[in-house]
Amino acid sequence: MHALEMIEVVDAAALIEALRSAGVQQGDQLGLAIADGIGAGFATDTGSWSMSTPHPVPVAAAIEDAFSPRWTWWNSDTAAVLVAGGVRVARCWDVSAAHRMLFGGWRSEPARVWAALNGVSAATIPVMGQLDLLGGGGDDGQPDRPGRPDGHLRPDWVAGGWATNPSHLAQWAATACRAVALQRSVIASLPDPARVEVTVRSESVAELLCAELAADGLPIDLAAADEIIATFLGPRPRHEQDAIAARRRRDDVVLSLPGVGSGTDLRNPAHVRSMLDRVGVDVPDTRAWRLEPFRATSEVVDALLTWRKAERIETTFGFGWIDKHVRDGRLRGAWSGSDGAAGRMTAQAGLHNMPADLRGAVKAEPGHVFVRADLGQIEPRVLAAVSGDAQFAAAAAEDDMYAPVAARLGVDRSVAKIAVLAAMYGQTSGAAGQALQGMDNSYPVAMQYLRDADEQGRAGNDVFTAGGRRIRMWDFGDQYAENPSTERSAMAARGRFARNAVVQGAAAELFKVWAVTVRARGGALGARIVLCLHDELLVHVPSEHGAAAARLLDDCLQEAAWRHFRSARHTAAATVRFVADITVIEKWSDAKG
DNA sequence: ATCGTAGGCGCC
DNA sequence: AAAGGGCGCCTACGAT
User: pLDDT, tens digit, for every residue of A521-544?
Assistant: First the structure.
C-alpha cells in the first residue's frame, strides 16, 4: 500500500495544487486510504503530501479497498469543484448516487441519506431554526458532532457548519465514510451484493462523468448553427424590433389564410382548436400527430404545422438558445447521473432533445473528429440478459434481433418489432396485441419477467433493476388516485411504468458502465466523451486517433457487458450479444447514412 | 409577482 | 374495449 499522510483539512484549491505538485496527471489512478475514520489521507505512487487551507469543499476521505481505492464524497458538488480545477480522478464512491440506487427516488441530500441509513423517517428531519420551545426532550446532540442521538444529522452542520473549522471538516468526511459503510451493509443484505456494489461504483463514476460533461460542453460551430436556424426563422435579427417583425411575418402566414381569423392566438391551444373547428377540422386536441392526417387536405393544418416547427426553433432552439448556452464554442448544460424514475442520465440546456435538424452544427474542433457510437436494439437485448430467457438471448446473436423473432413468430419484421416494444412498454392494443400471444409462447421467460414487474407495479410494490436500483412505486400514479373510479387506471399506469422501468433502468446501467469504461480507457488517446444520449456516445478525439477510438468504443462495450452481466444468475445473460454502430465523423449529422 | 398545471413537442 | 415508458423546455393560464 502507498504511504499515508494524515491531513485535517481538505479544500479544493489546495488539493488541486497538491495533486499537481505531486506530479499527478489527469486520469492518473489515485491511491487513497482512510485511517481510523478520522481525517483524510491520501497518496500516489509519486509521493505523499498534506494540506490545509480555509476554503473547504465536502471532500470526504477515501475508503480503503485493496483492489480499487476510490474517493468518497457526499455528492457530485465535490466532483464539480475538482473538475473546475482541472483535476479528474479515476474513481469515486458517490454517497448520493448510491442512495438513489438503494432507496429509490431523486432526493439524496446528506440529511436524507443519513436518516435512511439510520432507519428514521425523512419526515422527521430537523430544520434550521427549529427550536424545541416546549422543552419536549429534543436532544440534538453535541454541537461539535454532526450526528444526533435520534439518528439525524444536526441541521446546523448540514447548513454549512461542517465547513467551519478543520475538526468539523474531518468529522464531516468521516461521516461520509460512515455512510458508505452503512450503505455497504445495506448492500450486503441484498440478494446479489457483489452485483449491486459494482453497479453503485459505475453509477458513482457516472456522476463524475456528468461533472466533466458539464464543464467540457459539446463542440458547436456557431456559424453553422446560425445558418441552420436561419433556414427556419430567417437571418439572425439585429435588434428586438427585427425579431418581433420576423415573428409577426411567420404568424401572418397562418393568420391570413381563409377562415383562420386574425384574432386567433396561435400559441393558445384552445384558440387553435376552435379555429380548426371553424375550417372543418374537428380534433380533440391539436397535437401534431393528430393533425398530420389532415395536412394533405387542409391548407390551414399544413401552415399551422409548419408554423409550429418554426415556433419550436424560435422559442427553444433558436438564436437565443445558442446565445444562452454556448460559450467558447461549447454548448454547456447541467447533467444528472440518474433521474428519479428508472435511472437514466438527464441533461439540461437542450442537450438531450436537440432537434435532428440542428445536429449539423455539432462539429468537431480543428484537428479532431467525433466517434459516434449507438447501441443497437439495446432494450430487447437487455431484456434477454436480465430475464435470462435463453431463446430471446439466442435471437440477440443476430445483428438484427427482430429478424429471428419475426421468423419464430411467423410474422413480418415490423410486426415483431412492434410486439417486442409493446411488451416492454405495456401496450397490448392494436396490431401488437396479436403478436404478443406469439411472444408469450416463444419467449415465456422474458415475458414472465415483464409480467412480474407489471404485477408488482400494479400492487404498488417497488421493483428492482438487475443492477439493484430500487424503482419506487408509491409516488407514481397519484394523478389517478384521487378518484376511486380511476384506480384501475392508476394501477395500469404503475404496471406499465414498472414493466418499462426494469428494462429501461437496466439499459441505463449498462450504458453507464460502457460510458465510464470509455472514460477510463480513452485517456491515452485523448478521447473525451462530450455527449451521452441514453444509448449513444459522442466522443471527441484527435483526428489521428479516430480509428483507434472507434475500436476502443467497441472493446469497451464488450468489457462493459462482461462486467455488468457476468455474475447474473442465468448463464443466458452472459451470452447476450451487444452491438454498436460506430462511425468516425466530423459533424454529428454525418452519422446516419 | 410567483407557482403549478396543461398542452405541446423535441429527443431516446 | 382500450390501455406506450422516460426526460427538458416552451407558452398560456389559473391559483396563490
Answer: 888 899 999 999 999 999 999 999
